[in-house]
Amino acid sequence: MESLTDAFYNYIIVGGGTAGCVLASRLLEGDPSLSVLVIEAGSDVINHPHVHKPLESAKLHFSDIDYKYFTTPQVHLDGKPRYACGVKALSGAVAINSGATTIMPNGLAK
Predict the structure, then answer these.
(1) What's the pLDDT at 72?
(2) Which helix (H) or strand (E) holds 69?
């Protein structure tokens, strides 16, 4: 495999969330000869113990794949900040909201 500095890509997609994965998939469906790089801050969570069990997806909040974001204090909520999950994982928030992953075709998510 080439190093990233020596490689050529027709498209570089920053963010391996749902939209990034769908965009990469659509580009490759349209022209399989393209070279597409998806850059994601998080890891591939396909083997995470709670991702494939929808009833356990709540365990992913505040876990190792959650950025644990909080909003600024909200005026209409007694000045309290609110939790706003952000997911560092290939497939993005889908992994934490419903216990599902987005798997790219042809094993591209390696």
Answers:
(1) 96
(2) strand 69-70
Q: How far apart are CA 62 and CA 7, in angstroms?
A: 36
1-29 mean pLDDT: 87
pTM over the 0.90 mark: no
CA dist 36 and 31 (Å) reads 11
pLDDT score at 1? 55
Answer yes or no: are the C-beta atoms of 20 and 94 closer than 8 Å.
Answer: no
Burial annotation 7-27 (CB, 10 A radius, 16+ → b, else e): eeeeeebeebbbebbeebbeb
d(CA 86, CA 22): 19
